[in-house]
Amino acid sequence: MPGARGTGRILIFRQDVMTSLQGHLLIAAPQLPDGNFYRSVVLIIQHSDEGASGLILNRPSEVNLQDIWSQVADSQLDRDANINIGGPVEGPLMALHDRADVSPTEVLPGVYLSIERDQLDELVGCGDGHVKFFSGYSGWGAGQLEMELEVGGWLTAIASPQHVFEDPESLWQSVCEQVGQGILFDNLGSLRIPDDPSHN
User: Fold this and answer.
1) CA distance 73 to 75
2) How far apart are CA 139 and CA 47, in angstroms?
3) How far is CA 22 from the centre of its chain?
């Protein structure tokens, strides 16, 4: 099964290795045909031989958290936040956040996933830290994601907390630029690249 080998910022896929992409970003290539993922940046939450799942980081919706919360809980909340569309697959309310005391499920260093009701209660009732709430998720069956990567549907990069919590409107563009710079540096090795292109 195809896999991935880490090379700094960029991952190179090989036929003979299967490496989990948990904690990495999928960046939709411009030619990706699936409209659900147009210019999307997906954080991979889980990846194994059985498949993969993730959350789209740059699909904010107009649905307010208060509207969703009234359907899943009896309590009211004061937090003013919109729900993000994590993907086309229906799923429970989820949250990505930076509070290790709320959830032991660490997706990448400094970013945690919460699905359990008591954890979500804690997050909606506290204004401290970074948190994003999601409805729905992105899912791939066994071998499906690897196939999409092979045909060039996605670029990949190592994720950071900044990617998870930054402005979603500029995320795709900024991550594409970072990936492009990573490829350039990988190919040029130790050669110095001047800040001013006219000095090349």
Assistant:
1) 6
2) 10
3) 9
